[in-house]
Write a structure and sequence with these properties.
This protein has 180 residues and is mainly α. The protein contains 7 helices and no strands. It has helices at residues 3-18, 23-37, 43-55, 60-103, 107-134, 143-155, 159-177. Helix 1 crosses helix 4, helix 2 (23-37) packs across helix 4 (60-103) and helix 3 crosses helix 4 (60-103).
Length: 180
């Protein structure tokens, strides 16, 4: 059997097991492993995977790992990568569910969760700023993500609508405004 399947499972299992904060917090680790260490994708391909994973339904990190696996080894690659990403969370949630009712009202546990929350926000914010620089967000076009975030957050606009409008705007800009 191809070594890639085991390598991708192990790589994504490690990322899934040791990253707090969800899919966005995993971006730097996935990039480090996939682009820099294993050289499975170029930086440009990695940015494309992030964009595709964001617009697809489902868990962001699992979408990313599945797309990476699929790009390299089709269905079996997608399966090995996605299972590697999902399995640690499944095991951890299962263990927590087994013991949480016994410790949920413990003041120490409550204090730990109060301390973890701000750290998780930072784990999500750091890759967001990193992604913005890689996506070439500048002072000229920073209004697009700011306006999009405000529309979703303050006005309750469906993110799918924001994505469709931004895609249409990019298409129209590239076709009619931008001089090549």
């Amino acid at each position: 059997m191809d070594r890639f399947y085991w390598d991708s499972f192990r790589t994504f299992f490690k990322i899934g097991a040791f990253t707090l904060g969800g899919g966005y917090a995993m971006i730097p680790l996935i990039e480090s492993e996939v682009v820099e260490k294993h050289k499975w994708l170029s930086k440009e391909e990695f940015l494309d995977v992030i964009a595709i994973a964001q617009v697809c339904p489902g868990v962001f990190a699992i979408n990313m790992s599945a797309f990476i696996g699929y790009k390299l080894k089709k269905k079996k690659g997608a399966l090995s990568s996605a299972i590697g990403t999902a399995l640690p969370s499944f095991i951890i949630i299962l263990l927590i569910a087994m013991f949480f009712t016994k410790i949920q009202d413990n003041p120490v546990v409550e204090a730990i969760f109060r301390g973890i929350r701000p750290a998780v926000v930072a784990l999500i914010a750091a890759p967001t700023f990193n992604l913005a620089s890689k996506a070439k967000i500048s002072l000229y076009n920073c209004w697009i993500p700011i306006l999009s975030a405000l529309a979703i957050w303050l006005m309750g606009v469906n993110p799918i609508i924001v994505i469709l409008v931004a895609g249409l705007g990019g298409y129209l800009y590239g076709k009619y405004v931008r001089v090549s």
